[in-house]
Automatic annotation (TrEMBL):
Keywords carried by this UniProt record: DNA-binding, Transcription, Transcription regulation
Protein name: Transcriptional regulator BlaI
Gene that specifies this protein: blaI_11
Domain of life: Bacteria
Organism (species): Aquisphaera giovannonii
GO molecular-function terms, A-Z: DNA binding
GO BP annotation list: negative regulation of DNA-templated transcription
Length: 130
């Protein structure tokens, strides 16, 4: 699915992707163990999810060794960009301002994150000549 739009992962699929992003590629057993630390999950459930995710193009499987090794097909950043883009269009009519205002007003934002947001805005303004 290089360059194309990847399917939107479900919550359960995102949990598995988070494991693969954090831990790196792994076997079914490794993915199951890591996913179960966060939320108890059945072995066959993880297997079925990985099979579905493989069909959807969310994960890739290296079949050159036994057991097979799974990895996320896309980076965390690319998946996040797509999910935010979808949310931006569906919930906020394409308005980045509305999205940011809701995100910042929904909970207390730590001062260090606010500082990073300011730096990002300043950098973007410089890059766009604003």
């Amino acid at each position: 699915m290089a360059g194309g739009k990847i399917p939107r992962p479900t919550e359960a699929e995102l949990a598995i992707l988070r494991v693969l992003w954090r831990e790196g590629p792994g076997t079914l057993k490794q993915v199951h163990e890591a996913a179960s630390r966060a939320k108890p999950t059945g072995y066959t459930t993880v297997l079925k999810l990985l099979q579905i995710m493989l069909e959807k193009g969310l994960v890739a499987r290296d079949e050159s060794s036994r057991p097979h090794v799974y990895r996320a097909a896309q980076t965390e950043a690319r998946t996040q960009r797509q999910l935010v883009g979808d949310l931006l269009e569906r919930a906020f009519g394409g308005s980045a301002l509305k999205l940011v205002m809701q995100a910042l007003s929904s909970r207390k934002t730590p001062p260090e994150e606010l500082s990073q947001i300011r730096e990002l805005i300043e950098r973007m303004e410089r890059e766009q000549g604003g």
